[in-house]
Amino acid sequence: MRPMRRVLLVVGGLYHDFDFVRLELLAHLARREHLRVDLRHDYSDLAALERCDALITYTAALLPDAAQTAALADWVGRGGRWFALHGTNSAIRIRPDGKVLTPAMEPLLFDLLGSQFLAHPVPGRYRIRPVEAHALTEGVEAFFLEDEHYLQRHAEGNLVLLASEFQGETALFQTRDWPKGQHQSFYLRPRGQGGVLYLTPGHARGRYDMQPLTETYPFVERGAWILPVFHQLIRRGIAWLDRDLPETMP
Questions:
Q1: What angle do CA 90, 14, 230 make, to 5 degrees?
Q2: CB burial readout 225-243, b (16+ within 10 A) else e
Q3: Which residues form a coiled coil (predicted)?
Q4: pTM of the entire structure?
Q5: Distance separating alpha carbons of residues 7 and 199, to the nearest angstrom
Q6: What is residue 139's DSSP assignment?
Q7: How is domain 5-248 classified at the CATH fold level?
Q8: H or E element in which residue 115 lies
Q9: Do the beta carbons of residue 37 and residue 9 sit within 8 Å?
Q10: CA-to-CA distance for 28 and 225, rounded, in angstroms?
Q11: Residue 19: which residues within 8 A CB-CB, separation 6 or more?
């Protein structure tokens, strides 16, 4: 029998179906009976992090403040592992005219996470392909998905496992014009004795998740959550947190 380990799960923010995501992630975690979960909606109780062995986040338009970022960086540097999903790296403000602003995140947080969301085209079909052979992606081939195609700025030093390409416009966003380039979909970022594992697909939205901008939304969006390969990547990420893949960290 394995010793009990605690995982802090932070799920919350704006414009996404956090109830759906929370249940999906809890179902994955429940398959490892020795993992016990502390659940939070934001970063305000990071004292809970000191009681935990691992961190999983699925947030949108919700970033830790300077003090919380410093605590996260210290925890990761001392050996903590952080599995960050989808909008964890997003800081957005929507103007009354609909333009989406993406103010620069604090440098320490950018250095810790290794990327910042800047834009996405209208959710649609795009392709993700392997970049680096690794235990986390062993057997994973290129695949198509319908999701928010995250376009980002990236820090140096990420070990890119899966990536996509994009060229075109994102008319609603502050960064509008995109030359052809690679965008990191799944990567590892070692920091100190620990590290961050980032997976950018995973958009989810229900009919009431765009409030207060609009009362109802016309679609239910499940993005990559309908794909077996996406759930495989989540299981691998949890195994990395649980240190079942020791070769995944230098």
A1: 65
A2: bebebbeebbebbbebbbe
A3: none
A4: 0.96
A5: 18
A6: T
A7: Rossmann fold (3.40.50)
A8: strand 115-119
A9: yes
A10: 12
A11: 206
Q: CA 60, CA 12: separation in Å to the nearest integer? A: 7
Two structure tokens written together for 138: 């062993």
**What are residue 117's DSSP bridge partners?**
152
Can you read off the two tokens belonging to residue 107? 């440098």
- For residue 24 the two structure tokens come to 């999906």
Q: What does each of the 250 residues of the chain score in pLDDT, given as a tens digit?
A: 899 999 999 999 999 999 999 999 999 999 999 999 999 999 999 899 999 999 999 999 999 999 999 999 999 999 999 999 999 999 999 998 889 999 999 999 999 999 999 999 998 999 999 999 999 999 999 999 999 999 999 999 999 999 999 999 999 999 999 999 999 999 999 999 999 999 999 999 999 999 998 999 999 999 999 999 999 999 999 999 999 875 443 3
